[in-house]
Amino acid sequence: MSRLLLLGPAREAAGVRRAEFPGDTVADVIERAVERFGPTFAEIVALSHLWVNGDDAARDHVVGPSDEIAVVPPVSGG
Amino acid sequence: MSRLLLLGPAREAAGVRRAEFPGDTVADVIERAVERFGPTFAEIVALSHLWVNGDDAARDHVVGPSDEIAVVPPVSGG
Amino acid sequence: MDLNQASEWVVVTADSLRPDQVAGWVTRPDCGAVVTFCGTARANSTLEHEIIELEYDTDITLAETRIRAVTAVVRQNWPVVRAIAVHHRIGTVPVTDTAVVVAVSSPHRREAFEAAQFCIDAVKRTVPMWKREVWRGGSAWSAEAQDIVNVDDLIS
Amino acid sequence: MDLNQASEWVVVTADSLRPDQVAGWVTRPDCGAVVTFCGTARANSTLEHEIIELEYDTDITLAETRIRAVTAVVRQNWPVVRAIAVHHRIGTVPVTDTAVVVAVSSPHRREAFEAAQFCIDAVKRTVPMWKREVWRGGSAWSAEAQDIVNVDDLIS
Predict the structure, then answer these.
(1) The listed CATH number (3.40.50.2300, 3.40.630.30, 3.90.1170.40, 1.10.287.130) that belongs to domain D17-138
(2) D49-64 pLDDT, tens per residue?
(3) How many whole angstroms separate alpha carbon D96 and alpha carbon C82?
(4) How many angstroms away from the CA of B2 is the closest CA of chain D?
(5) Any chain D CB within 8 A of the CB of B67?
């Protein structure tokens, strides 16, 4: 179980800013989120950085209930 | 006869900001001013730019009653 | 508070920004220079619309943490800088209102200009902040999206 | 007044400056960037005194004319710049008060930073403005005097 923080376009596609999903790794948790939130969300995730507790993390990074995974899409420049 | 505008340290040394002196050239007018305002003023004039109506002018520049000669000492940087 | 103390003031808020207050806060008796950058909401879009407002979205905690990472690097690179403030507004920002303020004080102006410019450039590239353009009858995420990088990647 | 019109606002005055008003004035709907520089009176001197205030002396007409020559060059060199304001205070300026404000707006921030920095550098070098340092019990013209140059001499 890990907490998910959805930002910008990822939040919009999911319809929520925060959610919780089971899973032992970043990839597990994201997979459950994609199942729930659908293909538009999946496309955004594919373009996004995934942060665990504020830092870039690999998809096989192990997560627990105290960790927060943020889905960080590209930002508009300027 | 020309009007003289004395700025910063030149004003302080002369004790006045504006004065009028006779003379057909910048050099003439400045010479009269130096006679009146003394050696400290003379030292400052020697370091200063002389502007006629806002532009750098040579000492032999001819001036008339409608001209204004400004004594422009070096400014503090920063 | 010792006014000569080196210090940072970082805020991400839904309230209107106060650039005058921010600039006043960084002013110090031993500093001759305050440079303030205001990023204001523009009416112009890459799209064919007249923008009436922008909407900024982020997570406040995450954004403030990333901004503090930027101010730390500013201080390392310009040790003479005395005070740094970065305030970012989120939510709705009408055109001509200020979306972000950066203010920097230093004894002389060159370092204040350099540090302020580095700071806003780094904030734009490293802080998660999504901008939505709103026009009459519609809205869209701003184009020209780019990956967020870490501030350490900006130092050559 | 058409707010998108290119324009300058040049003032030399004995009144307190209002950097917030100046920055607000340069803000335009088609600009995303406002850079404001405030030169503030410092307590530090090249001499061994704690400065309590500065006194600035000039001829207002002459100084405003020379500042306008600077803003004209800024506009030539950075044509995208929309509005430029330069306000200089004369007479007594207490420590931490603002002696000079430069504010520049442009669509994007790089040009606003460049133009504002060039503008204040050029004002310092080309505008007749004498600074007296005042401490408890005395005063003196500020050291490090340098010749005033023409703004055309600053363009390489």
Answers:
(1) 3.90.1170.40
(2) 889 999 999 999 999 9
(3) 14
(4) 17
(5) no
